[in-house]
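chain and backbone:
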Amino acid sequence: MDDGDLAFLPLGGTGEIGMNLNLYRFGGPGKERWLAIDCGIGFGGSEHPEAEVMMPDPAFIADRHDDLAGLVITHAHEDHIGAVAWLWPRLRCPVYATPFAAAVLRRKLGENGLTNQVPVHVVPPGGVFSVGPFNLRFIRMAHSIPEAQALVIETALGTILHTGDWKLDPHPLIGPPSDEAALTALGEKGVLALVCDSTNAMVEGHSGSERDVRQVLTALIRGLRGRVAVTCFASNVARMESVAVAAREAGRSVALVGRSLRNMDAAARECGYLAGLPPFLTEDDIDDVSDDNLLILVTGSQGEPRSALARIAQDSHPVVSLGEGDTVIFSSRMIPGNERAIGLVQDGLVRRGVRLMTDEDHSVHVSGHPARDELRKLYSLVRPRYAVPVHGEWRHLAAHAELARAAGATPFLLEDGDILSLAPDRPEIIGSAPVGRMVLDGSRVIPMNGEVMSARRRMLFNGIVVASLAVDRHGMVVGQPRISAPGLLDSDDPGMDRVADDLRGLVEDLPASVRREDSALADAARAALRRTLGRRIGKRPMVDIHLLRV
């Protein structure tokens, strides 16, 4: 029997951090089946200020959704699960996830009106299951969220280990350590390729243990007075528990502030996590607790403008305030690209007299991703023939490839869209697929490079000018054109009148045949408006004409 080939295709998350969407293909021509792994979001940041939330363009696999056997979620982080509710209507396939990831996903699906529409199959951590021609098995991995799983993909042409996000933490506090025995047994059977997290591939040493953070937080919080607020990644359930334990040791009650923290708390308790802790207080309970007996666990560790902590820093939160004598602990790392946003929040807090503690001056955070010693250990356990670094920017992928080569594996560096044939012959890139980014714009998903976002980029950097123009049946201007240029000219700027005068004169100088036809007149008026703006203010903004014939 000709099994065809086994191929790997990243549509997102390779050559970048975030927006993970990975595909595997198995089978011969006309019998190809696809398996998707993860479907996550990313954030625009300073690189794309016109977009807040982005996700990979699924067009390639959406066009083949009849051949898509299923989507497997490795864990419940936003960059791996956050796009499912938005993109599933184009994929329309079964989804497989552990109980915790399924609990998080169901809440997201409900918010998008997809309750009971998406077939979500719950697989226990370490479980064995099949999706189409792919025989799959989860391997428990430690990470900064419960139930992170590596995925073993067994086919007639070889076995692949797709790690998802992971680390080797001997004391992860919530959930077991990474299953090194299962990894060793897999390596003894033989692994064709390891497709592996590269986030910390440039960091020497070990990522550190969650237990150490709990000990530091407990010691720090015990010695503080006034209100204490801690911000961390909402998905880090172990960190939530550590903060609660530290608060208990200091005689403080914990209040949750921020929707994502409340959702994660609910999902965790639904799955049996945080069982030893009493329910958290709500925002409405805060004023009933004295400052020295209160700890606030709050969203906004990355400086998100609409987060609870950002509003507290601006003194615009409806319930919570912080000031002189209070402390905020940033129990998180600064994601590259968020430096400015985090700095603004921290400046606002300090301006109000708040004391800051961060991972730069206290050991209040450890990464959930493997540093180089952990990567070396994984390669020694799994012993793959080939390595495919993913989940990182190019410098991370290159550092990972160097380490893999030193460990005896042959690495292949890919970017989103590269199709890597892994078998039956020696791996090679055999083609490419179209890739792109989609943007979450309110309640709709639109192309990053489409007309709407292109126009928004032009408006962002060059502004927009709209002219309202009334003309008679001969195309002669009636009254004075009305000019609106928000973000470009003040409403009382004398330049507005000069632009209006220029536009009127240019329109009335047009040939009569142009002035009599609406579409031709509007096009000519737009061109005239661009010319006069370029001459008057030296810019080329986006322009539009509202034409009214009277």
In short: Residues 518-537 form the longest helix (20 residues).
